[in-house]
Structure formats: structure tokens, C-alpha cells
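Input/output pair, single chain:
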Amino acid sequence: MNDLPQPKSTPLSQEEAEQLLRSLLEKQGTWVNWGKACYQLQQSGYDGQTIFEQTGFQASQQNLIIVAAQVYESLANAEVSETLLNYYLGPKSDVLYELRILNQDQRVVVAQLSQEKTLMASEAKEVAKTYQNFCRLSQLPDKFTNNPGDAMAYQCWKQARQKKDLQDRTRLIAKGLKFAYSLTAREAIEKLLSDFTVVPTRSAPLLPLYRLEEQTDMSRIIPVAGSLPLSQNDWDQVKTVEAVEPFNVVSYSGTGSLVSLPGWQAILKADEPVGILCYSDRLPKSLPGKPEEVLVVVDRGITNWDSKSYFLIEEAGELTFKWFEDQPNMPLLGQIILVVRPKKILDENNILEPWQMDD
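Output:
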């Protein structure tokens, strides 16, 4: 999000903090008031666990209503109708939370669509992501307008054309007709009822994934920009940090930090490899197993788009990774050349125990 309120310049007094905690405990006002209260308390040094113990609001719930309240405020600032604002006081905080990835103008139209279609949070999440990707296209697809309903219709139209199974195809056509906003979009989808041509699917490429196996693999040094979330400002700077496992990131007397990696061919061929630390659930394609910390190596020297690679971009003031099926209309900051997993140890306790042998 790019419209987060700034921290207060002065901390809350004890009396003010107690009043906010009491309002949360008694659930005074609406969920928007709760979100604002949680934000004020957090900015004054109260951590999520402390707020939970005194109010019953779990840390995950605090984060949801804080972000949703900020989205609500951005809708209010856009001067949407009172009817729309009252609808989201319903409460619909979980729906608004999913609109956090959109800019203000996009939020307004998606919020209106979500109200019109009475979407659940999971559906709103799909619409928000679909519309965000749709707005990145260099030009609008033929017969589809720049509306979130048409964005969903276009996705359903494209997916339906790739399905051989008649039941899957019919389900996508029905979904597309549900969301279609323009008459031309509706006509394009209805045409699929009689046109059974199957268009081959172009799948996203596999991530260039590698897991460290031996400590001796750590032999190549590259700069590290830091851990997500990062801004484009951070992308051009290097911060000093202490040595951090599992990738042996070390601090040094200069500016920034370094990480040791093997001299793999992809690293050796890279023009300007830079590392970014994040958890695997932040990657554009999910990995099997539980989320774990990974090191994403991005080549800043490759900024020309191709459909077989993932790229680093700035979105809503933060760096993120994306795959683009078509030429995007935004600057690419670099191409992902490697995603490195930490060395997998089956039983870490065995390493710490001395060898034992039977007499």
C-alpha cells in the first residue's frame, strides 16, 4: 500500500493508551475504529501480543483491521457514496483487506463491483489480483474494457479457450458472464458456446530453483539489497548487517552487506547479480512444503522482458516479483536468475552430539 498513515510524532500518554485498550476490549464503535486504535497503539510501542492479552484481538486480526481501515479511509477520501461506505461497515473488513494491493482508483471500482456482486473475501482477492494484472497490460484486449468486471471476464474467456473438458469450459463461461461489464465482453464469451476451438496453454516457466547441499558450496560473494519489504530506494543501496544464517550474510566496513554463493554458471554469467532475502510464500509461484527463507538472485543487467523469465518490479511502493505473459507497461528492475533454498538438515541435533560407538 502506498497510502499508509505516518506514525504519530509523539507517543500516546498512559491515559490515552488505556482509553484505546478499553475501547477495543469493549468493542466500541465499528471495526474501522478498532483498526485505527490498534494502529495508534502499535505506533506507540505496544506489540501485537500485548494488545491481544489486554483486548482479545489476535495479532493477525489486528493486522487485518489496520490495513482494511486504511483501505476504507482511502475510499472515503475518494468521496465514494455513503451507501458504499456503509456496506463495508457491514462488517466487510476481510473484503477490503484484499483490496490493499490496488491503488485508490482501482480500489474504488473493485469495491463497487464487490458490493454489486456481494463478493466474499476469497472472490474479492481474485478480482483484485486479476484487475491489477489486467491494468498492467500494454494495451486492452479486443472487446474488453478497463473495468474489473471485464478483467475477470477476460481471464475466464482466456482460460475457457484453453480447456478441452466441456464441464470446465462451461463453468468458466458462466463465471465470465457473471462478471462481464460491457456488451462486447459478454458477446465474446457467449461466442465460446458455439466455438469449441482449443487454444494451447502457455504456462508460466519453472522457477530457477536450487537448494544448498554442502557448506563448501558457499564460495561466491554478491551484494544483498536486504529483506522484503523493500522500496526501489533500497534497491540502489546496501545496508550494513551482522552475519545471518542460513546464507552467511556478513557485514563489512564498507556500505551494504554481502552473501557467499557458489560460482554457478548463472551467477558467473550475470552482469549485476544482487540478492534479496524473502520467504518462499512471497515468490510468484508457490513451492512445495512449508514457507522457508530463500535468497532470490536478481540480475540488474537484464531489464528487457521475455515470457520465459520472472522479473523484479516496484508495486505500490514495494519491490515484488512477477511473471508477465505479455509486454508490461512498467519498468523492469531485473530478472530472477536463481532462487536459492538453505541447506536442508534432516536432524540438526545429530550435528551437535559427539560420535558414539558400542564397546
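Residues 137-193 form one domain. The chain has 14 helices and nine strands.
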